TrEMBL record:
Residues 28-531 form the PLA2c domain. It comes from Phyllosticta capitalensis. Pfam families: PLA2_B. Belongs to the lysophospholipase family. It comes from the Eukaryota. Keywords: Glycoprotein, Hydrolase, Lipid degradation, Lipid metabolism, Signal. Transmembrane segments: none annotated. This is Lysophospholipase.
Length: 531
């Protein structure tokens, strides 16, 4: 506590020094190209496909090592599947439970049946609380979860966002937002939200103010292809048509260190994340200069977890304590306005011909990735361009009255994918089936027996060692609770240490490679595969 008081004092004293770091800046545009935008129909960017290929080679070695531990039959395996992890939303419950799953996969940090699979992932997507997790891990250059607990979360989660109640930290945040306004950009509740969260999620007295999403591409673990490719998601709202919230077919945006955009028709385009905030028309810079720094990391994970639009009108944001606090900050910067309810982005797809749903708009309005009803960020991972074979879907949603998942989030992804003609998603049963067969309480493999779809290894929240169904609204955690939620997450990853889980998981993964399966797999697949 004393340490934190000291930190807040130092925010106050040094505010003048780094307040401006939050503001986007004018920079020269990349010289090589006349257009910064590309069509989604061209597949992955060259940068991403080159990076992912290099990553996959390293991931394959780790997977081979892990497989050999499960069954000697895999020693000869040559064709290995491409793996991804999807970390759901659900506030700090999801961040900490999801962190436990990473720990249970990470051979640097655990010794359970699944340890080593983190090293074998090519992609990691996170949404809302899961985006905080992606940001805390990737944004700090991929330390172990244990070191994040000890070095950061133990202390920062104990104090909560309301640390700023003394408003020492908030003084800095006001200065950050004023600097962004002065640079010519709108600020909203998502700015104050992202800044407050950052003091808990990123290292440094300044809450990682100078970190950007695109800057992650310069970190050593990224350049050495030593970690999975990080992606966060968000949903678009058609504010210009009077919408407060998206519907189930709302445009799903994704942002990575490389690109920002959407695969969905109506947008179907991407722009380099580094140049977000630039004024573009039909993909081309309007002036001689571009903008960098708009992709401030806290703003990006703040956008992925921005729920203020649910209030629909600014005054109603005050209904929650956190809403009131955020407005107290924002109102020092400008008068309340409807745009405050969203993460706002100067529209990079303005007048871009393929982006028919948004090409007439100067601003994009983005909200929490879960608002389309899909709280597990599978959308980026089921895109055929990424060629992913197996996804670990870690579901920490609070669907039921008691804050447990009930299958509805993954089912919505299946329903939407089917409606939009995306055929990579395995069939997902009804919520009634999830509940009656207990599919929401244990690991289940979906899509085993259909070679044309991705296999999803569903890893739902369950109270193996701790009552891990804490409310999404709980924003303050004592060190013991943080540790207990992470420890329970390790059990979620490894099915509570069940003896057959490692070898059976190997069967589920390798079935997708088309390999001949050892005879032990027959019983495994019968017990873990839903279909
Ligand atoms: C991991 O656990 C196994 C089985 O309990 C044990 O044989 C092995 O030595 C452990 N490895 C490490 C690095 O602790
Ligand atoms: C951000 O600030 C920290 C602390 O002042 C500094 O060490 C780091 O190099 C800066 N990073 C960038 C990308 O400017
Ligand atoms: C509530 O929100 C409005 C924004 O509409 C703000 O101007 C006002 O100061 C807030 N009121 C209180 C009591 O916090
Ligand atoms: C499942 O969760 C959804 C989302 O919270 C909820 O609307 C629905 O009522 C739940 N269904 C059942 C049967 O529990
Ligand atoms: C957690 O789940 C148990 C039942 O599984 C329930 O009794 C309890 O009220 C739940 N807690 C919360 C905070 O929802
Ligand atoms: C998990 O929930 C069940 C059912 O509510 C309860 O009986 C059990 O004690 C809980 N276990 C833990 C570790 O909280
Ligand atoms: C963090 O919390 C855990 C659990 O209470 C404890 O074991 C560990 O020593 C703590 N670390 C620090 C640096 O406080």
């Amino acid at each position: 506590m004393a340490l934190l008081k000291l930190c807040s004092l130092s925010f106050l004293l040094s505010s003048a020094v780094f307040a401006a770091d939050y503001a986007p800046v004018s920079s020269s545009c990349p010289s090589s190209s006349t257009t910064l935008v590309r069509e989604a129909s061209s597949g992955l960017s060259t940068e991403e496909s080159t990076w992912a290929e290099a990553r996959k080679a390293i991931a394959d070695e780790a997977l081979a090592t892990w497989l050999a531990k499960q069954n000697s039959a895999w020693a000869e395996a040559t064709t290995l599947p491409k793996l991804a992890l999807s970390s759901s939303g659900g506030g700090y419950r999801a961040m900490l439970g999801g962190a436990g799953v990473i720990k249970g996969f990470d051979s640097r940090d655990s010794n359970v049946s699944t340890s080593g699979l983190w090293q074998a992932l090519t992609y990691h997507a996170g949404l809302s609380g899961g985006a905080w997790l992606v940001a805390s891990v990737a944004g700090n250059n991929w330390p172990t979860v244990s070191s994040l607990v000890t070095g950061l979360w133990n202390d920062t989660l104990d104090e909560t966002l309301l640390l700023a109640e003394g408003l020492d930290g908030a003084i800095d945040i006001v200065a950050n937002l004023k600097a962004k306004e002065k640079a010519g950009f709108d600020t909203t509740l998502t700015d104050s939200w992202g800044r407050l969260l950052s003091y808990q999620i990123l290292y440094g007295d300044d809450g990682g103010v100078n970190k950007t999403l695109s800057g992650i591409a310069e970190f050593t673990e990224y350049t050495s292809h030593n970690a999975p490719f990080p992606i966060m998601t968000s949903t678009g709202v058609e504010v210009w048509d009077g919408q407060c919230s998206p519907d189930a077919l709302g445009t799903q945006y994704e942002f990575s260190p490389l690109e920002f955009g959407s695969w969905d028709s109506g947008v179907a385009a991407f722009v380099p994340t580094e140049y977000l905030g630039s004024s573009l028309s039909n993909g081309a810079p309007s002036g001689s200069d571009c903008v960098t720094g708009y992709d401030q990391l806290g703003y990006m994970f703040g956008t992925s977890s921005s729920l203020f639009n649910l209030a629909c009108i600014p005054a109603d944001v005050n209904a929650t304590e956190i809403g009131t606090l955020l407005y107290e900050i924002l109102i020092k910067v400008h008068e309340a306005a409807t745009k405050d309810l969203f993460g706002v982005f100067p529209n990079p797809f303005y007048e871009y011909t393929t982006s028919s749903d948004v090409s007439a708009q100067d601003t994009l309005y983005l909200v929490d990735g879960a608002e389309s009803g899909q709280n597990i960020p599978l959308w980026p991972l089921i895109q055929p361009a990424r060629g992913i074979d197996v996804i670990f879907a870690n579901d920490l949603s609070a669907d039921t009255d008691y804050n447990w998942p009930n299958g509805t989030e993954i089912l919505q992804t299946y329903t939407t994918a089917t409606a939009e003609g995306l055929t990579t998603m395995p069939q997902i049963p009804s919520v009634d089936t999830f509940l009656s067969e207990g599919l929401n309480t244990r690991p289940v493999f979906f899509g085993c027996n259909d070679a044309d779809v991705i296999t999803i290894i569903y890893l739902p929240n369950y109270n193996y060692s701790y009552a891990s169904n804490v409310s999404t609204l709980q924003l303050e955690y004592e060190a013991t609770e943080t540790a207990a939620l992470v420890a329970n997450g390790v059990e979620i990853a490894s099915y509570g240490g069940k003896a057959d889980f490692g070898p059976c998981l190997a069967c589920g993964i390798m079935q997708k490679s088309g390999a001949t399966l050892p005879s032990e797999c027959t019983d495994c697949l019968a017990s873990y595969c839903y279909n």
